[in-house]
Amino acid sequence: MDIIGFYIYGFVSLFITVDPIGLIPIVHSIIYPYPKEQRIKIIRKAMISSTLILLLFALFGNYIFNYFGITIDAFRVAGGILLFKIGWDMLHAEVPKTKHKPDERLDIGDIESIAYVPLSIPLITGPGAITTTMILVSKAQSVLDKGIVILSILSTMLVSAIILSLSDYIIRRINIYGINAFVRIMGLLLAAISVQIIFTGIFGLCNI
């Protein structure tokens, strides 16, 4: 895979798992009581926090693997199954259960609290986004490839921040039915990507 192809693969994979379009109704319901300036501030803090978390896993993910004795092929199989479950939920226009629990929306305090929990974790930076980041790092064969992974993370977070900042406008223009249709399409793509990841991991474990 060439550099441009790897970047597109990384960006699309991360964008689908972060799923900013699908998050619009949830994020909007959490932050709508606040004035517009505060809503933008909340989203900015949440996106910065999410970016730092994914960069942390991108830079130090291999050390985590080595410490726990996890092989990349085993992680591909487990991570692929998780991503398939998220894709399956998206096909049914459901919020992935791995990313959000109802009580995490009720336990909100000040702006800082909302930005970090539940927006950054687990909504934006859920297990799916972390898993995708780790799998992308495993595909990086050189320092340049790792730089592409980091660029993919930054691009995804920037685009997601713009989309979530425009949630009011998007909801008025597209409505919930249009959002659900988009989420289903992204879910199908994620399911296909996850199946490929699972089989790559199985073949690696079996030395095929």
Automatic annotation (TrEMBL):
Entry membrane topology: Multi-pass membrane protein
Localization terms from the record: Cell membrane
Family as reported in the entry's similarity comment: Belongs to the UPF0056 (MarC) family.
Keyword terms, alphabetized: Cell membrane, Membrane, Transmembrane, Transmembrane helix
PANTHER family per record: UPF0056 MEMBRANE PROTEIN YHCE (PTHR33508)
Keyword Membrane in record: yes
The keyword Ribonucleoprotein is annotated on this UniProt entry: no
Name of the protein described by the UniProt record: UPF0056 membrane protein
InterPro entries: Multi_antbiot-R_MarC
A cellular component term, taken from the record's GO annotations: plasma membrane
Transmembrane segments: 6-34, 46-68, 114-136, 148-171, 183-205
